[in-house]
Amino acid sequence: MSTIQTSSYRRQRDHFEPQDTDPHEQRRLRGLLEQIDYSAFVANREVIGQMLPKLDASMFQRLAVLTATARAKWVAESLRQSESGAPSTPDQIARLASARAAYEELAEAYEGLRRLVERGYAVIR
């Protein structure tokens, strides 16, 4: 099984890869799989187009700024905790974990939005 590297995790691909040596059967199967993939593409484009009808570059910029701010808050929190030199308390660790989770979710949302445009599911106006 192959994997796809994304910004923060690996996702396994579980697409069927035929091992049959009959070229006619392989062509038929590839054609069927292309139809299935096209159906998924159309479904994604229609559903996402309805849910996100008016994307523009300023939306990407706002999400990028929000993500950068979350990253800065996470790192700033870690530096604040290191100032005393004492081990972090459970409360401090919880704040740090929350800040990291916020940054990671926003970063994944940004990458997800970018992939929507890259794959043609959404259009930037």
Write the layout of secondary structure elements.
Elements (H helix, E strand, L loop, with lengths): L2 E3 L4 E3 L10 H29 L5 H26 L7 H29 L7
Antiparallel strand pairs: 1-2
Helix pairs in contact: 2-3
Q: What is this structure, in a nutshell?
A:
The chain has 125 residues and is mainly alpha-helical. It is built from three helices and two strands, in the order ββααα. The protein has one domain (3-118).
Describe this entry's structure for a reader.
- The protein has one domain (3-118).
- It is 67% helix and 5% strand.
- It contains 3 helices and 2 strands.
- The radius of gyration is 21 Å and the shape is elongated.
- The two termini are 38 Å apart.
- The model has no long low-confidence stretch (mean pLDDT 89).
- Residues 1-26 are annotated as: Disordered.
- Residues 14-26 have a biased composition (Basic and acidic residues).
What is the number of domains? 1
Q: Treating each run of at least 4 consecutive H or I residues as one helix, how many helices?
A: 3
Low-confidence stretches: none
What is the radius of gyration? 21 Å
Strand pairing plus helix content: what structural class? mainly alpha
Estimated helix fraction: 55-70%
Largest sheet: 2 strands, antiparallel
- The percent range for strand residues is under 5%
The rounded distance between the terminal residues' Cα atoms is: 38 Å
Question: What spatial order of strands do you see in the largest sheet?
Answer: 1-2
What sequence of helices (H) and strands (E) makes up the elements? EEHHH
Mean pLDDT across the residues is 89
Shape: elongated
Region (Disordered): 1-26
Biased composition (Basic and acidic residues): 14-26
